[in-house]
Inverse folding.
């Protein structure tokens, strides 16, 4: 129906141009006259172009414009879309300034590459310390195995001197190893004061400083459901 209406408008416009000599003739395409050809054109667009345009749309938001209406309506739709696009884009000077901050995706890509390089360096140049750190992680994990399994989280406090060796190299190894194996790690570095002695004459207390590392280690816990109760007072109850 829309096709016939559009064709009628094109023919009318063509007659007006011929009669008045004003304006330009609107081309009547074969697909305007033949429904089979029109369907073929749409099928070609849908199979070859539409999917690609949808992929582009994820990066550059835009809308498809229906070009079957009157010329003025289509023109207005295009102008509105262009106005929308210009409002959604940063000015050139703003973009040049903002782009100095790297995209999150770029950071992730670079971080993975650097992580692999560091782990290979540990294995090649610091083999003995690297093996000790791995053994320490395995030992600590075994102590908290049940907790890890159930909730996917553990808080590990340690004063192990190995982590303070070689200017914190062992500590960096721990963080890289856990990251490589899929754990999320947050590290707190604490300094605990412990009283050692009191001067009887002055009452001054002498303290020793103990360095404590607190690892907050987590990963998505498994979904293990042993039983399910239908409902209790309107609440769905899951026994985990």
């Amino acid at each position: 129906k829309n096709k016939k209406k559009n064709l009628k408008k094109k023919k009318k416009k063509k007659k007006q141009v011929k009669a008045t000599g004003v304006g330009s003739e609107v081309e009547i395409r074969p697909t305007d006259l033949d429904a089979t050809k029109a369907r073929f054109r749409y099928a070609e667009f849908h199979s070859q172009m539409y999917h690609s345009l949808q992929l582009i749309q994820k990066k550059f938001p835009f809308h498809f414009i229906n070009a079957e209406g009157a010329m003025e309506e289509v023109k207005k739709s295009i102008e509105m879309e262009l106005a929308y696009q210009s409002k959604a884009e940063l000015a050139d000077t703003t973009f040049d300034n903002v782009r100095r901050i790297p995209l999150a995706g770029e950071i992730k890509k670079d971080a993975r590459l650097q992580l692999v390089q560091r782990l290979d360096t540990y294995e090649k140049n610091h083999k003995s310390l690297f093996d000790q750190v791995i053994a320490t992680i395995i030992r600590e994990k075994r102590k908290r195995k049940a907790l890890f399994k159930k909730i996917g989280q553990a808080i590990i406090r340690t004063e192990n001197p190995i982590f303070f060796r070689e200017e914190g190299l062992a500590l960096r190894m721990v963080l890289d190893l856990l990251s490589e194996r899929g754990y999320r790690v947050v590290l707190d570095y604490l300094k605990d004061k412990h009283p050692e002695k009191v001067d009887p004459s002055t009452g001054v207390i002498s303290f020793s400083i103990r360095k404590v590392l607190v690892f907050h280690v987590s990963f998505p816990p498994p979904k293990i459901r042993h039983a399910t109760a239908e409902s209790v007072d309107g609440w769905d109850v899951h026994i985990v």
